[in-house]
UniProtKB/TrEMBL annotation:
<dbReference type="Pfam" id="PF08486">
    <property type="entry name" value="SpoIID"/>
</dbReference>
<protein>
    <submittedName>
        <fullName>SpoIID/LytB domain-containing protein</fullName>
    </submittedName>
</protein>
<dbReference type="InterPro" id="IPR013693">
    <property type="entry name" value="SpoIID/LytB_N"/>
</dbReference>
<dbReference type="InterPro" id="IPR013486">
    <property type="entry name" value="SpoIID/LytB"/>
</dbReference>
<dbReference type="InterPro" id="IPR006311">
    <property type="entry name" value="TAT_signal"/>
</dbReference>
<dbReference type="InterPro" id="IPR051922">
    <property type="entry name" value="Bact_Sporulation_Assoc"/>
</dbReference>
<feature type="domain" description="Sporulation stage II protein D amidase enhancer LytB N-terminal">
    <location>
        <begin position="129"/>
        <end position="217"/>
    </location>
</feature>
Amino acid sequence: MRSITRFRRSLCRLSLGLLGGAVLGALPGAQALNVRVLVSSGQQVTVRVPVTPVAPSPLAPVSALSSPAQPQAMNTWLVGAAGPGRGAHLTLGGQDAGNSSLYLPPSPGSVVEISGRLYRGGVLLRAENGGVQAINVVDVEDYLRGVVPAEMPAGWPQSALAAQAVIARTYVAARINPGAPYDTCASESCQVYPGVSAEKPGTDAAIAATSTQVIAYGGRPASTYFSSDSGGFTASSAEVWGKELPYLPAKADPFSAGSPRASWRLEVPLARVQGVATQFGARVGALKAVSVTRVSESGRPQEIALSGASGTAKLSGAQAGGFVRALGASSSRATLSGLDPLIVEGSGAGHGVGLSQYGALGLARQGYDHLHILGFYYPGTALSRLAGVGGVAGPALASHQALPDLQHWAPLARAARQDIP
């Protein structure tokens, strides 16, 4: 009985703290630029908060890139939802919290554990579709501490890590929308964000060295797409997604040579090819031939012809590349031959648009700094800085400076053609 009483008293204290900062929709205005990351959702979500808030060091800035958060005594709460539709309320430990959203705002040095993962910052809880959304509200620089090492090996050269930090910061800055329930997610659908457990000294240093830096085009954060390995030639945004962006062209990328996926070969059984063809709407009966009939400037299929016992079909544009990847290829920069099995031979990994991570590694090993790496993969863009909260149009940017154009790189690229571990 005593434990139940203590639970209820603690529940009351937490509820008052949360309700004191309860918000619906947009977050309160603040000097720091916070990002709202959907990190967990379900019928119930477990949230743990420190018994005693962390006191920041007087010598450290609000989002100092210090050592990882240390283990602390935590209070645990099971958050659920009760009630129909938009009238649903959150529950804490089975008790009605009296609100459809609860907000524990971030503070200097604060951490929160959500569904077993520790995150910096605070948490916004929302009742949604009969369940709960748990949204980590965190300073953008602290958010990057969990993102960058999850996207690129922390032991890589600092200029490659710095380039990754800038494009990761730009990626999320372009998605900040105060009118939406949250800005981004924590999975591969957005940027992988495991929280504090992913933080590494090497990537922390790269984030600190590039603090607030983003890539801009036309005064707005650019679309900084990236993939593991371009396969020696980047793809344009137009050929992959049907949307032309002048700073995402198809271009030769010799610096990506030597990655683990520099070249690969698949043998796909006819039955699998038949199934993928049907999946893409090519119902031509028993397949007799599959061939690439048109390629893009980057060497990726732009049209694939399929002929079968009951007719022919063609897959064009993004569908052609999607067909190749659905066969199990790591990249659409590939050729097709044979039929049973269908031989798929290619190079690279990922969609190939924008920065190639192994290309960034190759450039870094040649001594190029992160600005030259970014200038090579996003030509015509400018280096800018986040200047705070902007409004419905996204964060404010300042200090636009053209990125260097990496010219006369072809001779130097030869030295980048080496085996890369």
